[in-house]
Write a structure and sequence with these properties.
2 copies of one chain form a homodimer. The first copy, chain A, is mostly helical. Chain A is 64% helix and 4% strand. Chain A has 10 helices and 2 strands; from the N terminus they run αββααααααααα. Chain A has a two-stranded antiparallel ribbon. In chain A, strand 1 and strand 2 form a beta hairpin. The longest helix of chain A has 21 residues. Chain A starts with a helix and ends in a 5-residue tail after the last helix. Chains A and B meet through helix 1, helix 2, helix 3, helix 7 and helix 10 of A and helix 1, helix 2, helix 3, helix 7 and helix 10 of B.
Amino acid sequence: MTDRLEAQFAFLNEADRLKSVLRATTLVDGSRVENSGEHSWHLALYALVLADQAGPGVSIDRVIRMLLIHDLVEIDVGDVPIHSQNGQAHASLETTTAEAKAADRIFGLLPSDLAADLRALWEEFEAAETPDARFAKSLDRVQPVMANLMSGGGTWATYNVTYDQLETRVGSKIAKGAPALWDWVKGKARPWFG
Amino acid sequence: MTDRLEAQFAFLNEADRLKSVLRATTLVDGSRVENSGEHSWHLALYALVLADQAGPGVSIDRVIRMLLIHDLVEIDVGDVPIHSQNGQAHASLETTTAEAKAADRIFGLLPSDLAADLRALWEEFEAAETPDARFAKSLDRVQPVMANLMSGGGTWATYNVTYDQLETRVGSKIAKGAPALWDWVKGKARPWFG
């Protein structure tokens, strides 16, 4: 029991560092950039509140669990903004290789049963093939769109994003897991691009 | 549908302000104080990882949902540290009245079905009578103890807390929902107080 709790808290104390990983997106009020810890909380709340946007067969509780752990690898790798390097960096081989190594280290702090469970959940999220993972990914893409809209442009201005790029890099992924949500968000976002 | 999404996002955009509510507790590395948004994420992760510390009949998924929303009232009321005003402010009539009013406003932004669900979940947390709520409260009390231990004393030093006060204000509440967890944490905390 004691060894198990030592391992559980080694992980929970290490996870605290996600609060110091900075994202490109700002808070809704534009006052500062968001960190990946509070971003993960906000996304889990998105899942709770937007559950009616999920398709058939989606377990919101699994989606929430996924979103709670989806960014932990950023403790080692940092956040790679979706629009950075003209949209090329986020899913590059370099990034995904570094993230897999980070997952080995971070989930490896846990007792082996928990490590295996959470690692599998993270891999499911990354693969974006199950209904749960697709919905989780959709929410991860919607939240920065709302932050940009509320704060007057945000990362769209920073990275000179066009509406077509938003459709390709973000909209298409939101639509995969939550088509009606993208239809609605698109109506809000389109006018910003003029 | 459109009106419903407007209400859902009015709530989600307002909830973003929890990231600007500062707590007395610092990050594990002591670099800055924690905000209530990232704190809520960390607690939900605590529930996921420490599920084996919950008593019979506890639904970890309900505990996670509870922890995601438990501090939203702080957007209006602010965080009231457990050790502030010699331990008297946290559960004062003034605080609980202000929090109920904040819950009216904040959950009231949601569509009525969601507002009722999340308000009920928050009230269950506050009442701390069900097994789910008791376990959620235990985690809410354990996490700052770990932050204080990791950062060299934290709010115990700030508020001149004695070990007896820690037992009364914190330990007794952790023990209600997670007795074995308090036994273990106590062994870590006791030496700090000399």
